[in-house]
Amino acid sequence: MLPCASRAIDFKQAKFTQVVNNVEVISSDQARHAAELNGIFKMPEVLQTGPASRAELTAPDNTVTRVGANTIFSFDPANRTIDLQQGSLLFHSPHGKGGGTIHTGSATASVLGTTIIVTTTPNGGFKVLALEGEAEIHFLNGLHTSLTPGQMTFVLPGGGTSPIVIFRLDKETSGSLLVNGFTDPLPSWPKIKAEITQQLLLLSHHKLQDTGLAVGDDATPDTVQVRMNILNGLSPFTSDSSIIGTDHTPNQPAPVNYPPFNTDHLQTKPFPYPSIQSFTDGLLFLGIINPSAGFIGNNMDIDTANVNLSAFAAAPDFDIMAASDMRLWQSVDFTPPIPVPAISGPSEPDAITLFAGGQMLIAPNSTLEADTGTFGLVANSFGSLNTSDGKVDVPNTLENVSLYNNAGDVDVLSLSDLMIEGMNSAYTVQAAGDVNIESEGALTLGTDIPADGYDVAIQANGNMTASANGDLNLFNTAVSAGNSDDVIDLNLNSISGNIFVGNSNLRAVGTVNLDAAEAISISDSRIVPIDGEVNLSADGSVDLENSTFSTGGTAGNVMVNAGSSITVNGGSINGEAAVVVGTVALNSTSGQTTIENGATVGAFYLNVNSPDGILLDGTSGGGLHLSGNTMNLTSSLGNASDDVSDGDKVEIQNTDLSSFQTVNVQAHSVYLDNVNFSSLSSYNFTSFYGGYYIDDGHQAGYVNFNNDTVDQNAIVNLDTPSTLNPNNSAGISLANSVSSNPGLHVVTSP
Length: 750
Description:
With 750 residues, the chain is mainly beta. Among the domains are: 5-219, Jelly Rolls (Sandwich), CATH 2.60.120.1440; 235-339 and 346-410, no CATH class.
């Protein structure tokens, strides 16, 4: 008996839980009878399946054994072995004991795993594939090997094993009737899908590479036979295809105005696809494990007003895939009204997607519509189609193209730079669900050419996300996310570049989030989270120029986090909230934070944390307009060297601070020039040396009052300038710590 054989399932009997076509049970007296649903298969009977036939057996411990076509197997109770004469088996055991000691014509080994496939080879051996969990293989000589999901090996005649090979889990499972050919999914299917997703992530990040080779049926201890993948040979992906019909006319009633799909390119069930990066990345982006049905080709033309996909309504997705370039010559409705009696159930696939391994060229002034769960477009690059010569007119650009989904999401992925300009309908993109636009290069929405109205308009009833690996730019763009009581967010992400927003309007029912690896710059724009907050995060600087941030609802916060300087140049930031107390927080880890040029900032809490300095400058632009309950300005206390460099300072110029109940300021040096205070409020100032000067210029390391007032009455020094001067007309006092009492308090023990 082999090691670990006692751990295998005790396959004394099992019940048929599904029987497809010709499946026979052969008893010990060689009598044959057809297998029946809920019938019992017990040792030492033999099970035989015919062509296009299969069966599923479930043991009392919930172990599942699926039997493929043209398979003959039995269980030998004396030797506790599964005698697999030919064919294939899938074992799934929740206890990790699926399988057992497998004996074929010339090979024997103990194979145990959670979900595994075992298939005989022509030379009398067999191969083992691990779909999820771990598979262990023990040999007669005492050696053993282990497989992780997505790995396979050959058990060779006479014992021994071949090298371990990594295989494509998505393609193996999509084309396997042992996985997909039964009514009920495998109990382990969610785990298999998780392993598929993990492998696709490794492929998309180039941690794994698809060789395009398929494993053959022969191997040695040092080699494994491979053959060219059929997709690289005679395949529908190697010849051109098209969907050609009539021109688009408004309110055209005919839903089918093109010849039937070319059956040489039509896929009516799950199909394999070539290893093209836009296919691999796009399927992962869209959450599709493997295409369920579709229309495929090398280069592809779509020139018809309507495409009727109702025949594929039962398919989870219908994927139109061109291995090279795809050209769309006019507006296309992929879910036109069907003039037939209403039927229950869906009238189209849940996802309708377009893939181009090369360029996807779309004619200007076109509208593409698919009213379904997901409408997706994926290409290595997009471009504007020159309808005169069929060539690219403007590369990496969509000109006056509109994308509509009145039932679900719109998802767009470009592996290259992408610019979207203009629209053909009321919106550039409109979706009843989410809108996701992603570029693995730079992404630009709109143009910076001044124009009446917005150049790009995006309406998402769900979340809106725009993401770029490079820079992300919005010019003359209006984005609206959500129109219900749900918390709907608007997200702009630059993974390795900058975000620039100019002359744009960003609105969300929930939160507006901008996240950049480098800098964020927003100018002449309006940011409105109706019932959420604004979050700006950049590893570099954040510049806000003449822009309005208006929060409300129950959050009411504006949070800015920068790796370097922050500048608020004009505009308005409103952190007030209708229900709870709002906060405006400006936090930088280096550089100076500046609020200037007539900016308005209002919030219950106004917090500025900037170690390298803070400047509030009301000199120009009509002065600063700061309001709220509590303001905290915090810079670094630094050290004596800052006396020379004049660093780590808080400088407030020509500003009225009388609206705040409490103001706390900390810095190496505090310069207060032409500032008005209220006698009813509490002001606390902390500097490096812990003292103050009045009308004596800027003395580094101290708190400096110059031409300041309390209730519009001048602060006058009654004594000679001194760092210890508690006796003056303004009532400036020295305190050992921050005080909540009204008055101007200089902390002497920083």
